[in-house]
Amino acid sequence: MAKYIYEYNNWPQFTWNDKSINVILGKVRHLQGKILGQMNALGFSIREEAILNNLTLDVLKSSEIEGEKLNYDQVRSSIARRLGIEYAGMIYADRNVEGVVEMMLDATQNFNKKLIEERLFGWHAALFPTGWSGMYKIDTGCYRTGEMQVVSGAMGKEKIHFQAPPPKVVKNEMKVFLSWFNKENTIDLVIKSAIAHFWFIIIHPFDDGNGRIARAISDMLLARSDNSSQRFYSLSSQILTERKKYYEVLKEVQHSKGDITLWLEWFLNCLYRALINSESTTQKVLNKADFWDYHKETEFNSRQRLILNKLLDGFNGKLQSSKWAKIAKCSPDTALRDIKDLIEKGILKQEESGGRSTNYELIQIKKD
């Protein structure tokens, strides 16, 4: 069995090939500056909306990587409330949603604060407010006390993908990691974000939640690299898209003798694609602002405003009158009246597809 990276004498001295990563690092840095510049040129409310969208995506997707699907509206409402952003349709969020949001906002909004053991324990406790992970009771707000293996396969035929360092060395490993995190200032912060992510995953200091905390640590350093708590792109969203490759690269580099070039290349390319894709998220925000500006004289009731905002944010699935009634908490007849009113105003139309149930979609605004 090949040795793990932490079993070599030079651990944790990482090396990499600068030539292999300099071009993509330059592209990432250029795009970060360009996006920040573009966003800062926008009006305050549009910028606020973009930040809310990206933070919501980040929280949702980071949990989804671990197979946990959170409620979109709860996540968005929780973030908006904590950032002091008001919008129609805010709802109460579950404790587990509040915990993930709390951790992510602490990482990105307080990005210049030191990362200390107590802060990490707070994040971990927030992720598991009941002290349970699914059906398993876990130690929360402290380092793990048991062995940690990442396995797959049926009982009795398990395949070990990774064996983390033994529990007795975790505290000391984390002491070295946190000292480096808080004192190292010669490495580019984007590279530091990639290294911190990998290093934390290798130590695997907690019973559960290591992936989500590693991504929060990455986001914290990316916020430092932007020197801004305003988040206009989502790394977790892109990692979810490339999840298979994410695990493949981690699996390969965990057996290296200290050279992490392959991981850095993948991380930087993934981040670059996240930055490219953020432009489509921003476009959605701009389209929403255009819509409300175009219809500033149009009369809408509160139910119509609620559903239109959901459609403009990127509604999941098809809009039908039954869904309208459920979301807007009204009768099917009222939902149909609301929809017909919007069709008459030239805002909604029936989808061409037909079928047993009628679907409705927004009519795109034609700009002069």
What can you see in these coordinates?
The chain has about 375 residues and is mainly alpha-helical. It has two domains: about 5-280, Orthogonal Bundle (Fic-like fold), CATH 1.10.3290.10; about 295-360, Arc Repressor Mutant, subunit A. Helices cover about 60% and strands about 5% of the residues. It is built from 14 helices and six strands. The chain has helices at about 20-40, 45-65, 70-85, 95-110, 115-125, 165-185, 190-205, 210-225, 235-240, 245-255, 260-295, 300-315, 320-330, 330-345; strands spanning about 130-135, 135, 150, 160-165, 350, 360. The chain has a two-stranded antiparallel ribbon with strand order 1-2. Strands 3-4 form a two-stranded antiparallel ribbon. β1 (about 130-135) and β2 (about 135) form a beta hairpin. α1 runs parallel beside α11 and α7 (about 190-205) packs across α11 (about 260-295). It is globular. The termini are far apart. The model has no long low-confidence stretch (mean pLDDT about 90).
Brief synopsis:
With 368 residues, the protein is mainly α.
Present the secondary structure layout.
Layout: H1 18-40, H2 44-65, H3 72-83, H4 95-109, H5 117-127, E1 132-133, E2 136-137, E3 149-152, E4 159-163, H6 167-183, H7 189-203, H8 210-226, H9 235-241, H10 243-253, H11 261-294, H12 302-314, H13 321-328, H14 332-344, E5 348-350, E6 360-362
Antiparallel strand pairs: 1-2, 3-4, 5-6
The unreliable regions are none
Number of domains: 2
Number of helices: 14
- In terms of structural class, how would the helical and strand content be classed? mainly alpha
The number of distinct β-strands equals 6
What helical percentage do the residues reach?
A: 55-70%
CATH-level-2 architecture of the largest domain: Orthogonal Bundle
Please compute the radius of gyration using only Cα atoms: 23 Å
Percent of residues in β-strands: 5-15%
In angstroms, what separates the terminal alpha carbons? 66 Å
Kindly report the CATH topology of the largest domain: Fic-like fold
What is the top-level CATH class of the largest domain? Mainly Alpha
Assembly state (oligomeric) = single chain
Major pleated sheet: 2 strands, antiparallel
Shape: globular
Please state how the strands of the largest beta sheet are arranged side by side: 1-2
CATH superfamily of the largest domain: Fido-like domain
Nearest-integer average pLDDT = 91
Task: Sketch the topology as an H/E string, one letter per element.
Answer: HHHHHEEEEHHHHHHHHHEE
